[in-house]
Amino acid sequence: MASAARPHVLRVLLAVAIAAAVPCALSDPAPLQDFCVADLQAATQLDGFPCKAASAVVDGDFFSRAIVAAASTRNPFGVNSTRATVATFPGLNTLGLSITRVDLAQGGLNPPHSHPRASELVMVLKGEVMVGFTTGTNQLFSKVVKENELFVVPRGLQHFQLNTGAGDAVFVAMFDSQSPGVVTPTFSLFATKPAMPIEVLTKTFLVGEDEVGAMKSKFAGF
Ligand code: MN
């Protein structure tokens, strides 16, 4: 009996050891104090922001109207993102969360992009939005999301939001980072400064320099 049970016990111990070795804090690091309202003017550069003096902290540091107003969607994509991250909402500093409001015109698209430091929880406030993400094995998971419904995008994966409804749409995206970051491949490839070497682009897309030039001209103005 003991010899039959032992391999099982060893497997459990191994699983526990592996689990313990995997970092458990996938979002921003846990805060070390009740609050650390960002001092956005501090001269010291940190991974994050230093804290304002506690005596200088006021109610307004924990309040924001950053996403109250709709932003104009009059651009070729029909989208506008309004962010409440630590950069505009200092009370978020060290708390590991932030939120973005996204307005979509009818037919508007939030083009494929990723957030290097956060997963994204989408909640549709108005209209209906197709939300989709792709995986490292090129699977596409997507769903049309309606008012008060949710869709979650795992950290770092490419995703998009397309307005599939009959009018404007609005959703909020909640992040488990005070500064999720955003990487949009179309801009990362065609609108960098300095420009990406032309050979990288022609060989990446298996096209000629004319096609690359046409793509660059589309994204240069943003
Ligand atoms: Mn996103």
Present the secondary structure layout.
Elements: H1 2-21, E1 79-84, E2 98-104, E3 109-113, E4 120-126, E5 128-134, E6 140-146, E7 150-153, E8 159-163, E9 169-175, H2 185-190, H3 198-205, H4 209-219
Antiparallel strand pairs: 1-2, 2-9, 3-8, 4-7, 4-9, 5-6, 5-8
Terminal CA distance reads 70 Å
Number of helices: 4
CATH third-level topology of the largest domain? Jelly Rolls
Structural class: alpha+beta
Strand/helix succession: HEEEEEEEEEHHH
Strand line-up in the sheet with most strands: 1-2-9-4-7
The fraction of residues in strands falls at: 15-25%
CATH-defined architecture of the largest domain: Sandwich
As a percent range, the share of helical residues equals: 10-25%
Beta strands, count: 9
Any idea how many domains?
Answer: 2
Named once each, the bound ligands are: manganese (II) ion
The 3D shape can be described as: globular
Give the class-level CATH name of the largest domain.
Mainly Beta
* Parts with pLDDT < 50 across at least 5 consecutive residues: none
In short:
The protein has 222 residues and is of the alpha+beta class.
Task: Explain this structure.
The model has no long low-confidence stretch (mean pLDDT 91). A hairpin with a 5-residue loop joins β5 and β6. The protein folds into 2 domains: 124 residues, Jelly Rolls (Sandwich); 32 residues, no CATH class. The chain has 4 helices and 9 strands, in the order αβββββββββααα. It has a 5-stranded antiparallel beta sheet, with no helix packed on it. It has a 4-stranded antiparallel beta sheet with strand order 3-8-5-6, with no helix packed on it. Helices cover 20% and strands 25% of the residues. It is of the alpha+beta class. The longest helix has 20 residues. The site of manganese (II) ion has 5 residues, from loops.
